[in-house]
Every structure is written in C-alpha cells, then in structure tokens.
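Q: I have two molecules that I believe assemble together. Could you output structure tokens for the complex as a whole instead of separate predictions?
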Amino acid sequence: MSDLQAFRQQTRDWLEENCPPSMREPVKGGESMCWGGRNFTFESKEQQQWMERMGAKGWTAPDWPTEYGGGGLNKAEHKILREEMSRLNARSPLDSFGIWMIGPALLKFGSEALKQQHLPPIVRGEIRWCQGYSEPGAGSDLAGLQSKGEDRGDHFIANGQKVWTSYGDKADWMFCLLRTDSEAKKQMGISLVLFDMLTPGVTPKPIKLISGSSPFCETFLDDVRVEKDQVVGEVNQGWTIAKYLLTHEREMIGGMGMTDGGAETLSQTAVRVMGVEQGRMNNPILRAEVAKWEIDGACFGLTAERVTDEVKAGSGVGATSAMLKYYGTELNKRRFETLLKIQGSDGMVWDGEAANNGWLPRTWLRTKGNSIEGGTSEVQLNVIAKNILGLG
Amino acid sequence: MALVLDEEQQMLKESAEGFLAEFAPLGELRKQRDAGSQTGYADNLWRQMADMGWAAILVPEEYGGLEFGHVGMGQIVEQTGRTLTASPLFATAVLGVTAINTAGSEAQKTELLGAIASGEITTALAVDEKIHHAPTQISMTADKQGGGYVLNGAKRFVADGSTADKLIVAARTAGEAGDMNGISLFVVDRTASGVEVERTEMTDTRNYANISFNNVEVAEVALLGEEGKGFKALNATLDAGNIYLAAELLGIAQETFDVTLQYLKERKQFGVLIGSFQALQHRAAHWWSEVELCKSVVLKALQAMDEGDKKSPALASIAKAKLCEVAELATNEAIQMHAGIGMTDEYDIGFFIKRARSAQIMFGDNSYHTDRFALLSGY
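A: Yes, here they are, computed for all two components at once.
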C-alpha cells in the first residue's frame, strides 16, 4: 500500500470514529455554522466535540505547519482529507476568519512570536477574529482610511471608527488597519495591528441590515492601547498585507453560496415547486432563466477549477481573484432572484417555523451585500481594467 | 484531469498559431470572398494542413491516424476562429471522422478513415432539413430495395456540401419525424446519380449547400452502422461538432477582444484615449471575464470527449450555449467600441460577426442548447 493509500485509510477510520452523527447532516442555514471563540454558544455538544477533535489534530487548518498547530498536510493529503470528509457529508468543523484571513497573512508576513501567539488558538477554535478595514469615509476608497494610531514609544493609541466589522460583537480579537503616519502618501503610512476586543475603548455596535439580521458592526475606537509587538510586518507597511488579505477575501466571497452544502440545486428546487410536464418544467420563461443560470454556474465553477489548476501548474495569469469575486457574487445574486420567482408568495414570508424563519427573503436580501463587501463589483471591474487589461 | 494544456497540446496550439498566421490569415478569407471562390478556401491550404497531419489528428492509429485527441484538435480549431480560416478541417477531420469512427464497420473505417487521414477525400454531414436544427425531425427517407436503399428527401445548410467527396446523410429507414428510432446514416458519393447540389451564398462566405436526393440508389455497404439505430452515432457526432464550434467561437471571442482592447489603447477622442473612459473599461472587463468562463468550459468539454465522459452531451450543450451567448456579446461589442470604422467593409472586424452567427446557428443556437441542457438535466 502506498503512503497515500495508507493515509486515506487512516483518515477514513479516524473520521468514522470521531465525526459525530449530527455533524454528518447538512448545515441548516447560517445559524448552525461553527465559529468558535470565547463567546460562542455551540448548537450542540456534538458540534463542540467535532470542532475540538478536528482542532486537536490540526485539521481545521489542514495545510498549516504543525509547529503552529496546523495539520501539516501536503496537497495530496489535503485533497484526501477533503474527499473523505465529503464522503461522510461531514460539516466544516470550524468557520473562521482566523483560518481564512488573518492566519494566512500571519504565516506570510508575521513575526515568529506573532505566529506562535495567534495561530494555535485559531486552529483550536479558541479565538474568533474580526476585520477592521472599512470606515464611514473609506469604503471603496479603502486607502483613504482615517483611524489613527498615535506613536507612544512601545505602543500606539488608536482612535477612530470602523464599519462593516463582520461579527464584531461576537469576535475576540480584531485585525485592524490604522493610519500610523499621517504625513505619508495615502497607501503609505498604514499599519496592520492586532488587539483584543476587550481592550478598554473598543466598542462594537451591531448594524441592523435590510435582511433583519446584524452580521456587521460599527466599531468605535477611543484611546485604545495597541502594543507595538502586535504590528503585523513593518510599521507603515500594512497596505501590502491589506491587499493580500483583500485578495483572500475576494476569493472567499466569490466562491461562496454556489451550493448550500448538500442542499438542493436551483433546478431541483424549481422542479419541486413548479412541476414538470412532458419532460419540461412548467413556465417556459422561468425554465429558461434556471437553465441559463445553471449553464453560467457550471462555467463559473469550471473557471474556479481552472484558475486553481493553472496556479498549481505555474501558468496562471494571476490577478483573477477580482474576476472570480465579480462574477461569483453577481451569479449568487441572480440565483436568489430566480429562487424568489420560483417560490412565489411563499418567498415573501418573513417569519415562522413553516417558512424556515424567513430564510429565503432574508438570504436573498443578504446577497445584495455580496457585490458590495470586499470591494464592489464596480471596483472589481476597475481592478480588471487596470491591472489585467492595462487600461489607464 | 487538470484544466490545463499539457506540453504537447501547448506546442500544437503554438504551431497552429504560427502556421495560420503565415498561410491563412484573415486576409485570405477576404481574398477568397472578393474572388468569388466556389470553395471558400484554397486547395493548397488543405493540402498543407493534411501534410502536417491535421486531417489525421482524430483518426485512430490503427487506421493510419495520429490519435492525438480532442484537446489537441480543439487548440487548432480555436486558432482557426482567430484567423477565420475556412477549410475542410471541421466537416471532414471532425465531423466525418467522428461519424465514421463511431458508427462505421471495420471495412468502412479502414477505407474511409485512412483516406481522410491522408487528405485524399473530404466529407460533409447532411442532417438538417428545416431552417432550425432538429435532428429528431428528419423526414428524408431511405427505402430498402433490392440489395440496397433508395434515398429521397432534401437537406440544407450542409457545410462543405458542394465540395465534399462523400456525403454522410441521415435518413429515415423507419418511423416518422420526431422519432429517435428509425434514423440511419449513409455514405453517399456527392456525384452519385440523383444527388442535386445547390451551392448557397451565405453571410460568412463559406461553403454550404442545399442538397436534394431524388431516388438515389446506394448499395447496402453505404449504410454506416446499424439500420434504424443511427441516432446515437449522429448525436455523438453533433456533440463533437458543437464542442468544436464552441472552440471556434472561443477563438472569435478572444480575437475580437484582443483587437478591440488594442483599439481602446490607440483611439483618441476628446483629447484622450477612449480606453480611459470608465464606461468602456467596465464593459471590456466584463467581456474579458466572460471569455475566461468560455476558456474553461471549452477545455472541459474537449477533455470530456477524450475521456469518454458520460457528461459529454450535457457539456456540449453547456459549451455551445455559453459560447453562442459570449460570441454574440463579443462581436457586438467589438463593432460598437470600434464605432464608425467597425461598420466598414474595409476593416476586418465585420468578418467576425458574420462568421460567428453562422457558427452559432449551425447544429443549434443558444436557445436550442439551453433547452437541450435543461432536458438532459431532467427539466
């Protein structure tokens, strides 16, 4: 038996033994995702067990180095783990901005001390992170941010206001962009810093969205002490890291929502609700809309695959994250508009058990933010035009 | 399989690019058109292509071919979309080879595939009878008489129909229009008695024909595959055809994009380059994104054929539907962004929209393949 076959067998056995039965069922909407952190209320004991067992093995961050708590898996092993997990329909043990965003940035730009301090708790799901990027006056024009970090020798004193902080009221630590040199040119003079949300002067306030939920906060910073050893990379050189992180975020948002983890496809929902007569779905206009979406969805999925394969083969053009973000979020918005048409008046039911607590209209409204957060579609088109097409 | 070209496929793509740029650039199409060419292509061009082995790429080695595979052939066809090169490559080396290789007997394969591979004969596929692609609606008849068959009916929009040596004809030996059963394929000499070929002048100035069959007698050996069971092979041939048309449309979408992007960087109005206008930048960026999706689906569909993937029919319809949509966008945007000059015959960009629409319509347009994809998906 080859090493990989042995690894597959061990992985399969371990998952069989350690993945609790309820963690092999599809996620029911956003509420049953596992975010971890100091304040997290687990949906069930099994959800907690699943996160802790996977975290202890480092398999919440399978490709991170073992010295920082990660799984240390190579690409082939990582793929096997993914395959074996999907064979069981195993849920993601931990959804985490730590794993998706600040972790990769620390691995690439962080000091040894910062990696040792922050990465292992991320892997174990002990610390939940949030992102302090946008400000009321700095949305699409992120580099125009004004929150200041005043140099006080071994620390900064931060003042300002952040907005669109995802789960800011539930997170334990923030990675945050501060202007630490107000004399320098716009993109210069920005630092990426880390601080505990319990630091005096940090006040997150939830923002209620059109979907009725509050996944975002505005976060006020009043004389917040930030230690100098919590600067990622060099002081005043944070913009490069910020851009790297934005790329990660774009990829994440672009790939989201294409499937609902084992839930129905668009056409399956359409067929269930609309019915089929003589092989064709009732309502030819809606049928065409569904089919056109599925064709575009298939082409987009293949493109995400091709971009990954090209990177592996070293032949990619790069900078495609803007395209994936642009196209993926626009597709997701289209999907929910079509779902709404399929569900008719049912799609407008806002509350109640029968309507899954208004999952559809609320999620539909939430998707409107997909093409805004992480850089609007228009900003992505600007990035493509400028960086890829060379249009000035 | 990873969605990237391997080294040999990449080399073939580059050699096709070089060859076509030198021997069959877009100017060649203009020359053929202006000269009123009856074939739409130069004979010596096809000779050169065959000498390079392009006619043999899809032919199995045992019948004298190269068996290089669809991904490789797809790269060549994509390049012919960039240069709008007319040749028998599609009708003969793709459609002819696929039909014969899928349905033919050992003897037919040995005889016909070998002759195709060496460039000795060309073929044409005669399917449609009405103005819209509808392979199940075939009503042309083939009646069993004596030791052979008698063919009666009419075909239209037959690519290379006026020049091909052999016509591969779909006709009914049983059933009626609408039935999948009862369709049979025949190999018929274009010059056989009772075959009446009318060359049609089409928008893309390529070589098409309407063909009538009036009591055309063929021997039993003309039957390609089993009597009444030709639909499966026909379908496989049409899937291949549509995937290659998608590859050609991908070439068109890319070439029009590249030419237009260059124009945006040269043309000045109001004292600045028009490429500095955000209204045009966003449209160009969207167009580029759509082309990226097209590259992925065409490559996947070609790979699926090489692997004998059972999703090939669905992928053929996905690829053709998507490429019809994007080729339409590309050719329209190309003219609009070139503005006045894009409307002139002197400028090349107009050739692309003419070829694109013909390629879109052949074997089913966007609406046909969107419908077919939905049917294949169970709705």
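A: One point stands out. The radius of gyration of chain B is 21 Å.
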